[in-house]
Amino acid sequence: MSDEYENKSGYQAQSSEALTGSAGSTPDMDYVRPAELPEQDLYHGHTFLTKWVFCQDAKVIGVQYFLTAVFTGIVGLILSWLMRLQLGFPGLAGFITAEHYYQFVTMHGMIMVVYFLTALFLGGFGNYLIPLMVGARDMVFPYVNMLSFWMFFVAVAILMASFFVPGGPTGAGWTLYPPQTILEGTPGSGMGILLMLVSLALFVIGFTMGGLNYMITVLQARTRGMTLMRMPLTVWGIFTATVLAMLAFPALLVSAIMMTLDKVIGTSFFMPTILKAGEVLEYGGGSPILFQHLFWFFGHPEVYIVALPAFGIVSDLISVHARKNIFGYRMMVWAIVGIGALSFFVWAHHMYVSGMNPWFGFFFATTTLIIAVPTAMKVYNWILTLWRGNIRINTVMLWCLGFIVTFVNGGITGIFLGNVSVDVPLSDTYFVVAHFHMVMGIAPVMVIMGAVYHWFPLITGRLLNETLGKWHFWATFLGAYSIYFPMHYLGFIGVPRRYYEMYDSPYMTSAVGMNEFISLAAFLVGAAQFILIFNIIKTLKTGKPAPKNPWKANSLEWHTSTQPPEHGNFGERLPVVHRWPYDFSVPGAKDDFIPQTTPPSEVVHTKVEKT
Amino acid sequence: MSDPKIDGFELKPGFRGMASDTGSDQTMFKGVHWGKAMMWIFLLSDTFVFSCFLIAYMKGRGSTPVEWPNPSEVFALEAFGVPVPLLLIALMTFVLITSSGTMALAVKYGYEKNRKMCGWLVLATAIGGLTFVGMQAYEWSKLIHEGVRPWENPFGAAQFGSFFFMITGFHGTHVSIGVIFLFIYAYKVFAGHYENGGKRGWFTTMKGDYVEIEILGLYWHFVDLVWVFIFAFFYLW
Question: What domains appear along chain B, each with residue ranges and CATH number?
């Protein structure tokens, strides 16, 4: 490849024949700037250990991330079953005490938000897709990337270890609000919370190593012709989410360090003067609100760290399976970037009832409502992409449609909760639970499922079974609606969240039947996920081999030398990009898709736009 | 990989140049080594870590019900029988800023392929950093002897000790990590790992280059800059 690399090349066009890299004479219209950088040297593992365990191939690391995250997700799912068992049928499972219930709530929340969704989107899809989609041979720092996964693995191991320590895992709620989190009487206030904080700190360190890779790969290692505005929206979503994570996780790290010190050596960063059974504790003079500010400065961008990759991926899936270019690509990009920037100025809308200055609430309500504008733009654009598209109602498209519906639902309840005066009565009720599960639980999971069905042939070379996939979708979609839609009502009648049992409160009369119904639906939805696992196992054993580029997509990951791609991704020559990845159904074109690598001279007589 | 020099590109100046770089393919920062870009972004992230610490400190200091200790008394040092406020801190700051100077020179000589000078200057930087850590250890032990603990102190609000030990400790950890790497890189420079196309690192196929000294320098300057803020917030406020 050294013949393609021109170290001293400038911006000014040089004679085009020597530079385009294709054989023979090519018209000037196909000119692409020569390579700025030499080929990346890759470390090829030779032993089982360096090939599959401590592997430096981003694709293997991505799968490792994915599987580890799915493992934590299954733990989180089982915890949610136990919670619903208690809520729907109190006392039926005698082993679930109030303490256990709080521990389940806490661990379910933390696992699902941080260790499942974040790791899966950024670590899993990010690692697998970024180098392939931008046309790089690998991440720019493969060794650091490998360390990143193993740091995450250790963080997960420590988190899981907290189930087995004396006192069990922490039961302080996933927000870990002090002072109760580290005081006696809260479940897991001994070893449990300590392991949680250590695990979070390691997660942040591990993520930083991965995040640097994702950012530099996107910024500095794209292939020839791949401008930022020709990147698939998946990469834009993951990239912006990574930027958010790099700037938001520091607040989590700092709050974890400070709380660890409060717990272990008795400082009082977050601990005010506390009376316990008539006696003043050692603590005093600290500020619990400070923790809330630090936590939510991390916590709110975290919502978008999960949502933005989902936005990006779903845009690509909709475009491919509706055979139509994405509506308003540039608007979509700027919406992603705008949402990312705004997400740093809305954190205190989680704290309306914390007792902070009311003017703060006014400010944060305004910014929260402003963030709805780019988000709504994205929803319109998805729908306009579908408008008059050649829609294929396959499993992937079903998941995308499911995403749009659940996301709009969760987004609208978000507007309710963004207003202080509406939030105050609804705060800490099931309405909030319904809102955030709809918007950042179900909606991103729908995208993950769609992405799994979409990219499974790329990763394994086999197509997942469509019939099973449709059963999986409908059971999940209808089931998830059965869980969370009634929860809005429970919130309106005032059922508080995080209560172990309603006892004989007036809520009981109308909430009993509904709670039972929700629990049954939750069991069903959880069980439905095993359809996917069965489908994957069945496909790996007996599934039919996927043809090359089975969805007829344009982006680079489908145009590798082999499928699944080998280490180095693109064989002998790196691809040269001439267009965006959304040229579907172009009038006059031979096929209904034009891959990103197709030079303009091959599509002269089509009505393809210049991108 | 080798470092394509920025002068290999005809960069346009100003906002137009930035826009055309951003809009171009392959790289956004033309001619910038991957490792260097990574270090800048890492430092941006680390800036947020230290900002969170310092903002937490401001909030903690502002909301504590007990009087905050007077820093010029707490941090005074006896010199010839007279208590001089901030003497030790002034020395520490001087040493650290000087080490930034030697680091900058090391980068210059590195790019000039002057192996010996570069190595000696990296070593001098490492020794400067080590001196700083040593003086900080002295300061800590002096305060501990006077009864300052993370959870209490005889001068006033308990949060004083908490924030002081946490933030200077976190910064000191950064300095210590930097010192370790400075020693390693001094060895690597002297051993000629960056000469003749560079030696491949352990478990990676990337070749060494003097740009690594600049990357290390970025980290070192950052640690110094953070110290300036810590100095201002703890000792001058």
Answer: 1-32 (no CATH), 33-236 (1.20.120.80)
